[in-house]
Amino acid sequence: MEKEQFYYDNKIVKMFLWATILWGVVGMLVGLLVALLFVFPGLLEFAGADNAISWLSFGRLRPLHTNAVIFAFVGNGIFLGIYYSTQRLLKARMFNDVLSRIHFWGWQAIIVAAAITLPLGLSSSKEYAELEWPIDLAVVFIWVIFGINLIGTILKRRQRHIYVAIWFYIATLITIAVLYIFNNLEMPITAFKSYSVYSGVQDALVQWWYGHNAVAFFLTTPVLGLMYYFVPKVANRPVYSYRLSIIHFWTLIFLYIWAGPHHLLYTALPEWAQNLGTVFSVMLIFPSWGGMINGLLTLRGAWDKVRENPVLKFFVVAITGYGMATFEGPMLSFKNLNAIGHYTDWIVGHVHIGALAWNGFMIAGIVYWLAEKLWKTPLYSKKLANTHFWLGTLGILFYAIPLYVAGFTQAFLWKQFNPDGTLVYGNFLETVTQVIPMYAMRAIGGTLYLTGFVLLAINIIKTAKAGSVVEDELAEAAPLKKISGKRIAGEGFHTWLERKTVLFTILTTVAILIGGLVEIVPLILVKSNIPTIESVKPYTPLELEGRDIYIREGCNNCHSQMIRPFRSEVERYGEYSKAGEFVYDFPFLWGSRRTGPDVHRVGGKYNDNWHFNHMMDPRSTSPGSIMPRYSWLIKNDLNASNIEDKMSGLVTLGVPYSDEDIAGAKQQLLVQAKEIESNLRQDPEFVKNYGSSNIQNKEIVALISYLQRLGTDIKAGRTALK
């Protein structure tokens, strides 16, 4: 059959390559900065302690780091690999060059919008989904553009059967769309303020259904697709087992979607949901390790090349890191291990094994290999690439191992009791100061890893300068002839399915929907899952404003609001948390780590002056604290102009504010603010420092009102369930 000539679009691949390198440096640099704040809390107080800069505080920089690394660095790296491999696997140029450019520039615009809004405190507070609703809409739009481009390319392909990498790209496209849309359903209040349509326990489950599977279907499945393409290409060996790849794909996408609840073990989530998450998480080890084995055994007969080729070195450590992380995840879903790991730095170490080794090294290897292909020249320096590899590997070890030590240290210190039944470390801060040396080692590891990546940037720039520009690469392939839709004699079922791409996509969608529907629908529709508590009332207007400030400052990055039913936690914090306490929490704020103590029962524990001094200078109330100062809260006037809109929006979501409550919101807010200011003026030091200043209209007062409310409802009605 006569072959057709066409051109691969290399320009879009180069665009994503440069974006990957740029955002990699930026994301890692912010990560290093955040790591250093654990060791030097005042590092960014350039204007003096009383003039701390709000947008350089940890609570605002941490989500900037996670979003920059996940969506900017890894995201661009994924698109880099997909745009290169898809064209060659399907023997077709991307469906539409204009859509490719819209996808690229739209994605970069979203990243820039995130880089501006997150430091400004415009955040929904949800892990890996902090962006506010206008940016969420942009993400969905650009994802649809990407989807049209990918599906269009599949439909016009010249290769009859879709290769395993394309299976994973399809699963990624479908699942991320479902996850992102359902997790980010929200009620817009203003241009950059919204409330999640889910509250409390329901919001927690939906968020971790998304959060776990964002890791699964954004940081894992597309990278597995890249592994199935690039590892055989670089090693010049076929994939070890086609049959194993089939088992790997279908079991992975079916099981992964169920595993989210293992992030919520021992919380107020119903027991049946926790158990489902555990069971499916444990089963996940089998398909995950099937993929790791398939990747590593593809190198059989080519291990001598690993010694010579830096790209294969990166791939080997990446796949090994994937195996380690996907062994550790199921192990952490066992309740006895989860009781140790959850809320500690063990989890941070675990996450970064995946991020630094699996994602970072896989993308680094792809970038090095593609540089030679895209610029038609040898890599500028293999020695530099090898240096990057060893610096990065040492960086991973220096990062992860200290955090494992820190995690076990925290867990055991939190649970230590004296013979008389009191806590050995009753002051939570004592458990923080003991792990600061581990935080210092983590910062060293981050420095090594970032240095290695900077060497990659230099190497690629030098390679590009030495090479030639080939924007369109000539290729040829025979067009597809129409054949019967029925299975041909000797054709296996899956081989037949690989040419029925619409059916393949439908089956993929069904596989990923089942787990989410089984877990989420009953929790939303069956009221008995969340017994209500009569004494739990909606937040007052001032408390609602204070809660929004708490979210804006990212306090939930360090403080949990979930007391688990452990003797040590009940002794330390108070009565364990109940599902019915969170029914008016839009969104939930249970947190995922404890750099500071849990605050769910902090209401009434300290007086208003303690909270005021703690926010102005944490070291004044808690010597040795690594919490940042929030001096801007006493300078910023409280903007409550939208309080009626906020309350009306929450009424739509089911919060029982009356028309009278909404009409009198500003007056009620003022009355409560005056009461707090009166309490503050009982302290002579406060009067001395702030004299006749009008404090009642400052943001600090609203935040104090929220903190003083936390956990106080249940004291009046622990058994008042209905």
Automatic annotation (TrEMBL):
It comes from the Bacteria. Keywords: Cell membrane, Copper, Electron transport, Heme, Iron, Membrane, Metal-binding, Respiratory chain, Translocase, Transmembrane, Transmembrane helix, Transport. PROSITE patterns: COX1, COX1_CUB, CYTC. Its main location: membrane. The chain crosses the membrane at residues 21-44, 64-84, 104-122, 134-155, 162-182, 208-230, 242-259, 279-299, 311-327, 347-370, 390-414, 434-458, 502-525. Pathway: Energy metabolism; oxidative phosphorylation. This is cytochrome-c oxidase. The gene is ccoN.
